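User: Structure tokens for both sequences below?

Assistant:
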Amino acid sequence: MTLTRYDAAPISSIHLDPQTGFLYAKNVPIARTGVFPYLKSDGAVSWEAKLPTELLADSTIESANGKPVTNDHPDELVTKDNAEKYMKGVTMSNAHTDGGTIRVDMAITDSNLINAIQGGKQELSIGFQTDVEPVS
């Protein structure tokens, strides 16, 4: 069963482009291996494993390049039909691993989100689709 999941990505190393005003965040951890709780639509919590053999596979890492960055978690996956509403930036094309973590650089292009980050906002959202296999 394919589900959409949203994880928060903590940001720290940022700089503002003086020419465009865009904000760039470097080496942002967007996913890590482990077992994590996800809230189901009925309010129950589902614990799901992100296994190193799957999360750190070349195809998974490559799939993190050029993806939309959102402010908080939208109720739907970002697509061409709703990108204007939700997309506030994009991941760059340098997805890589560091230990059990996938990391990317991000460009934030939305002025409201840039202002929020400069005002102290510490996390951005990335979304992903995954096949969940119900295994104990």
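Moving on to the next sequence.
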Amino acid sequence: MQQADVLFGGNGVGQALEYARGYKKVYFRPNPGNAGDALINVGFYSCAERCGLEYVEITADFDYSCLGSEDLVILSGGGNIVPYWEAGSELLMELTKYQFPLLLMPQSVEGREEILRLLRPKDILLLREEYSFEYAKSLGLECSVGLDHDLAFSVNAEDILKSFKLPPLRGRNIRKMLYILFHFLRSRFFGDLKALRTDRESRFPGKKRKINDVSSLAKFGTVSKELNYCSSYWMLKILSWYKVIETDRLHVFVACSLLGKQVVLHSNSYHKIKGVYNYSISGFAERAEKVVFVG
């Protein structure tokens, strides 16, 4: 793939995965993180299955030195190449030292120009909203740049919820399951939930309850396909019990959209929620009518 504008048509994921089929071997590194990251990873599994892409799933301790220029490494989407977090930038610094090309699934980016400039002509960077897309284009990066929807929109929530997923039963997970039981009981009496983030990306005033931070509560692991489906299942399950959800969590919002729930949506500390809302929600009447975007 030589020209960046090959991917500019809004079907960047589909085109990029078809392009990936030309490599000798394809590797996928799932996003580490919370249940929102798990939902993104499940979105990749869905897209790969639809296009018949064969891949090897790898973990954080994988030895990349065994790969060559005929191999491709796919990194799951997300919001890790921003000033608020270090892991995504550190990963790119490491992986761009090797010969194999990278395919970055739809991202939000802000700042980190020095990291983005490490991407090479053989790499592909997909963005999930127009703020990040225009920023990446303005840098004149050597890699191909494209635009497409967040991978989590590719998830079929009904299919996920049909299959009960029990997390590994150890201390922390047992406590989380008790908190999830609390939500089940609470939802019998209250139809609304304030599922607000409790980390550095929050700009929502006042004290937030960690038990309501659903992305964190349903975090049962992201290092394997099985755990990604488990985390996604429980996040979707909790949200399915409520009628109206107020949130500044991007993937709580996306999960609610998949479930057809009413959402009161707030921005986080940078443009990703506003950007995804504008690109993936506001132009689709069936989705937009269920979202009140406060800003």
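User: Anything stand out in the second?

Assistant: Residues 1-9 have pLDDT under 50 and may be disordered.
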